[in-house]
Amino acid sequence: MALPVTLSIVTLSMRWCGRLCVAALLVLPAAPACQAAEAAAPTTGEAVEELRLETSDGIRIAAWYYPAPADTKAVATVILVHDLEGSHKTVDALARNLQRAGCAVVAPDLRCHGGSGSRSAAQAGSGGRSDAVEPRMLKKIDLESMAAATGGRLRDQSAMRGEIEAVRSWIKQKSDAGALDIDRLCVVGCGLGGTLASMWTAADWNWPPTTAGPQGQQVRALALISPVWATKGVSMSVPLTSDAIQHAIPLMVVAGKGDRDAIRLFDQLKRFRPGKWFQQRAGLPAEKAKDLEEPADGTAFFIQIDTTLTADKLANDSDLKVADQIKTFFALALARKPE
User: Fold this and answer.
1) Does residue 324 belong to any structural domain of this protein?
2) Greatest C-alpha distance within the chain
3) How many CA atoms lie within 13 A of 51 on its CB side?
4) What confidence tens digit (pLDDT) does each residue in 164-188 have?
5) Does 31 have pLDDT greater than 60?
6) How many CA atoms are closer than 13 Å to the CA of 177, on its beta-carbon side?
7) pLDDT by residue (tens digit) across 200-218?
8) Please, are residues 216 and 206 in contact by the beta-carbon 8 Å criterion?
9) Count of the separate structural domains present in the chain
10) Helix (H, G, I), strand (E, B) or coil at 337
């Protein structure tokens, strides 16, 4: 017998740029509280390409590229970052759903995860996967290295380039060749991957322009699924000092009921953007900032789903339609003229 699904629909409409009006629906399914199994990845025929990248500290990174459907221009170029102890496989269903929605997606395996290498393997000269290093044993320096994007004046020659920056460099090469559009760059992070994605986004906004043009501030939207506030010495409090996270970048938080870290983060965002927030909590009426005329004029969104799932499992459950919510949010953000 099929499980009942309750839909709460919020219609958003706005004018963000010239005559462009964006109308969208945020569909918020309520999943049974007992539902905890990860949805199986769909068996589809969409193209997926395995990439081999490398960080500045010599770690070989496996990543998977989900191109937009053939003969179509990607509506967004997306970097998708999995949670601690996950891999591209644990967010594969979300990546494929975004792909079918018209996005081009790159999902890396973070160091010591999936098919990627480790620091010890790089130091040994192999760069390959070291089974002796478990993800849960990673330290603060390892996590910070994943989100690193700094050192020097020229970004393409930066001294510290972690996993996310390695993906961005690959996207830029494809963009320079006309195959992708880095000007439509959006980022999705799950669990601790959301914290790392926020750290990297803040670093992206720190790169100053050169005489050749801009080399930073390329992220146009950030979606966080069950973001972790703090663990292993890394914390959301660091990227929250960045103007990018405080004010500049449209940001959406998606979480299940009872996710205190997500609520804490959005409460902070509401303080930074007192007139620009909108939230839909499970089982409650939608709320918005007092001076916000249209919900879609906001830049900070909180979508709470009636489920106990978190991070990769929440993202990968196709029944919860997280990909639809993310695509809607990206459409709104990309229609907005960059500040």
Assistant:
1) yes
2) 63
3) 23
4) 999 999 999 999 999 999 999 999 9
5) no
6) 7
7) 999 999 999 898 888 899 9
8) yes
9) 1
10) coil
What value, to the nearest 5°, has the Cα angle with vertex 103 and ends 278 and 38?
75
Contact indicator for 231, 261 with CB cutoff of 8 Å: no
Residue 221 sits in a domain whose CATH number is 3.40.50.1820
Asked if 65 contacts 106 with a C-beta cutoff of 8 angstroms, the reply is yes
Question: Is residue 116 in some structural domain?
Answer: no
Residue 135, token pair as written in the block: 């993800």
Among 228, 234, 256, which residue's Cα sits nearest to residue 315? 256
| CA-closest candidate to residue 253, choices 335, 336, 322, 164 | 322
Task: Tell me if 303 is assigned to some domain.
Answer: yes
Cα–Cα nearest to 250, from 162, 150, 140, 333:
333
The overall pTM is greater than 0.70:
yes
Q: How far apart are CA 246 and CA 202, in angstroms?
A: 10
What Cα–Cα distance (Å) separates residue 290 from each residue in 138, 263, 287, 293? 43, 19, 9, 8
55 close to 145: Cβ distance less than 8 angstroms = yes
261: containing domain: 6-49+64-110+147-335
**DSSP strand pairing (20-30 vs 287-288):** unpaired
Q: Return the exposure string of 149-188: e unless at least 16 CB atoms fall within 10 Å of the residue's CB, then b.
A: beeeeebeebebbbbbbbbbbbbbebbeeeebbbebbbbb
Asked if residue 12 belongs to a domain, the reply is yes
Using 50, 70 and 90 to split pLDDT, how confident is the model at 305?
A: very high
